[in-house]
Amino acid sequence: MCYLHFDICGKKGAGKSSLLSRFVNNSFDELCCETNGIHMGVKKVSVDGRYINLYIWDSYLYSKVDSYPISNFKSVDGFVFVFDCTDERAIEDILEWQKKVEQEGQTHIPKLLLSNKCDMECDRVISRLSAVRLAEKYKMEFFEVSAKNSSQVELAFLTLTALLLS
């Protein structure tokens, strides 16, 4: 059995820990608080008849581009960039992450772009079209997800896994 290492990155409050909990444990905590330290989830999945252990890391360090450890670029298999579609400045954060990936010469690492909190349609300020264009520009797979109602969460992680196995 093989394993893959994903890092969930994005602005504080984007819902990184909630997405991790939803994918790994199929749970959502309305009172989820700020990540203080490191959370890691492990989930065994099957893709095309192959079993893979996914090791998914979420750290308070991953909420700020400048604090992301350079050494992680050498060990990560895939990035999961998360933004809150109800935060008008969230795209700026994703652009900073992409810039860091480019500076480190790691543009070959597969990336997901997840627009989280899509269940809050009335509060949305970042359009689907804007996010799709960003994903296309930087060759990322894009999904609108909701950790709260589990919309497309599993599909997104399995898509990244399949990309890495192909």
Please identify which CATH superfamily we are dealing with: P-loop containing nucleotide triphosphate hydrolases
H-E string: EHEEHEHEHEH
Strand order of the largest sheet: 2-3-1-4-5-6
Give the N-terminus to C-terminus distance in angstroms: 16 Å
Shape: globular
Mind summarizing the main beta sheet? 6 strands, mixed
- Classify the oligomer: single chain
Q: In total, how many domains does the architecture comprise?
A: 1
Low-confidence stretches: none
Specify the helix fraction band.
Answer: 25-40%
Gyration radius, in Å: 15 Å
Can you tell me about this structure?
It is a single chain. This protein is of the alpha/beta class and 166 residues long. It has a single domain (2-165), classed as P-loop containing nucleotide triphosphate hydrolases (Rossmann fold, 3-Layer(aba) Sandwich). It is built from 5 helices and 6 strands. It has helices at 16-25, 72-75, 90-103, 128-137, 153-165; strands at 2-10, 38-47, 50-59, 78-84, 111-116, 141-144. The chain has a 6-stranded mixed beta sheet with strand order 2-3-1-4-5-6, with helices on both faces. β2 and β3 form a beta hairpin. The longest helix has 14 residues, at 90-103. The radius of gyration is 15 Å and the shape is globular.
Short summary:
GO terms for molecular function: GTP binding; GTPase activity. By secondary structure, the chain is of the alpha/beta class.
